Write the structure tokens for this entry.
Amino acid sequence: MRLPPEFSAALAAGRTVLAPNTELAAALFDAAERERRSLGLEVWATPQVRDFGSWLRDHQERAHLEDPKVPRPISDIEERELWRQVIESSLFSQNLLEVGVAARAARRARRLMLDYAIPWNKVLEEATDEAQAFFAWHREFEARCRSLALSPPALLPHSLKPVEKLAWIDNAGWRPVVRQWLMRHAQRICPDARAADASKALHFDSGEAELAHLACSVRERLLADPLFRAWVCIPDLARRREAAAAVFDAELAPGRFGLFRAAPPAAYALAGGSPLTQYPSVSAVLDFLDAANGSVSFARFSALLRAPWLQESDGEAGTAALLDLELRERGPHEATLAGWLKLCEEFRHFKSLPPVTAAAHLSRALATLEASGSAKRMSEWIPLWLEAFKLGPWVLRRRWSSVEFQAAERLRDLLTALARADGFFGTQSRAAAGRLLKRAAGEVSFQAQTGVPPVWVSGQLLDPFLNYEAIFVCGMSSAQWPPPPQPAALLPVRLQRAYGVIGSDSATQLANAEALQRAWLQRAPHCVFSFSDSIDGQRAQVSALLASSAADVAMPILRPHWRRDPAPILEEFPDHQAPPFDATRETTHGVATLKAQSRCAFRGFAESRLAAQQLELPVPGFNHRERGQLVHAALEHVWSELKDHATLMRLTPGAAKLLLEEAARRAIAAVCRRRNPGDRWRVREQPRLEHLLGKWLDVERERKPFRVVQLEEGGEVATFGGLQYRVRIDRQDELEDGARVVIDYKTGVATADWRGERPDNPQLPVYALLRPERLVAVAYGRVNAAESRFVFEAERGNVFKAGDREHPRKGAMEGEPSFAALIGRWHARIEAIASGFAAGDAAVAPTATACENCPLPGLCRIQWVPDGGSSDE
């Protein structure tokens, strides 16, 4: 790729070359650097290539420094915030849904008036509501700029004279007023023109196929010619950025898919950049400032605690993860950052963990901010922020990549701009100052300087000026090329058309499209235009601008390399058999192990032997597990006081109220000793729990006489399949004739899930096998506000409701004639499940409903099991 001789001569003569935008300026600068390297030079003067906007701002800054009477030019941050303030305080703001959108529209409209020399009297002649609102906003904007001694962004072609020699590249990106000024004050540089050897239009049935073919074509050209250079235009790159990055990574940067820490430089770059807030070194400090102000949810604090930019080593990251697990189980739903850090220290001592470096870094950074006082000017906040950043989010900046360093430097530039705007922003509280910084960073697009690689992917429809070996342009269907009119908001459309604003109508769009298309054909010998069908499958047609010079060629779908056919041959290794259970080194998890093994052998293996458990997430108030614990603890107290059905029936309403109040109070206190969600939730839970217990006692009153012979008995051990399982039975009742009933409380859904050869929950059968003497029924006690009742298996029809003479419904006791016979069947079934677990059976073979709420789909990879697994139900 050769630079025009005029361009090289202008640089050699010491001229500053101006480009209409930053993208072209970067491409020209890189081309100038490569030309000097190709000449064998080892030292050369930095090419003076600038985009016009930044050059103009520097020129105005220099004028202000030389003469303090000249107003300081307004910065981007000040301009955005000033437009926002002006619009928010206006009468028209009452009908606006998004003030930020209106502010951006006002900025664009003002810029168009300057670029196309549209006079205000022409705007006011239209007398539209939008024009009137824009005029009022603009007048207030100018007035506030004068009161703050700020110069609004403007080009003054009659008074502005450059102090250095200038040159400018002839490009369609220049707007009329700027072009006229340049023609008077700078040397014009024209691009080299050469006719394209070949051009074609390609049609694809999907956008994915279009991008994949594009990336594949570029890779083939690069392999054939290492000096190959291409310019690629994807007009909707902002929407398709992730998809474009995926296909180009697959073809041009496959190392990014490896497990290596450092991947080789990519042979492509996506122009336009990303919001500054998306870069790790910037998002880290913004997350920290957010957390330092007000309440912080557990999810946000967890991300801070485990953030890689706070971990000195893999071991310290592991310690932070262990502390995170403890916080998940015992921490509140939200707290202040100081509160979270205090809990970290308490739990660390409780679990005997070593010091957690991440928490220590956050503590030091927070202490710096909290010692700063309340309201300050931005220039006073920024040194404190930077000090806190160095102690916290930026403490390991020595490990940053080049991109992270550049992003941090761009944030420093933003902070400098904020510091210079003291007169505009005044004093701000810590929270308000943090919000201001976050908003400003979110509106800044940033692209790291890594040089212009061989393949440059742009999102702008522009003339690339430089000559390339190939140009690829997407989105060239009849519906997209020329682009449909997109007039600017707030300015009357008729006025935009009258002054030739590009994009205001079909005529200007057509003229601009024809000019760009001619330029593309002159910039590369090989031009490829492509388009694809819509997402809904509607077939696209080639643009009329291409129909006469290029053929519509249908192309097959091309897939990224990791999805291509034929697929690589993989070695198969069956993993359904784990080593036998080693009772000397491993322990079971009680009935939970048998429950998981029955539903899916792999789940039993993963949860009991690999300790693969779903991570908890603190919720507001008490979670489902804690609500179950509350009911168990409260009912244990209730029946330890009542002891039998007769006492329950004699209980007066007043005594019942006192009993339930005490039971609820004790249960809440017991549960809160492990995790206290806060006084507000404790107060709310008391009446809810009392009401629930009252409903359950109404169910118990309907039963025939009984006495409670066992409550929450734990520590018992059952042996199945040669392994021991610790069992805890909630309650055993004895009826008048000495028969026994086993009850387990459930606060959620309760169904007869113990039936079948592979039951979803073998809990009640295990309890029956442990206490088979005179057993006539097992039951879930569903203690639920919606419906409280017993769900049971019984050989009598009146065990749980006095006067109920109905015999067990058809299918009860699984067809066995007696409960003893049913227990015998349960014994064989549980032995089979336990024997499979002991032998190491880990097959991915779920029951019909096992996968519905399973937390391990990514670990078991059931989607790769033939036929999606198997089911015995």
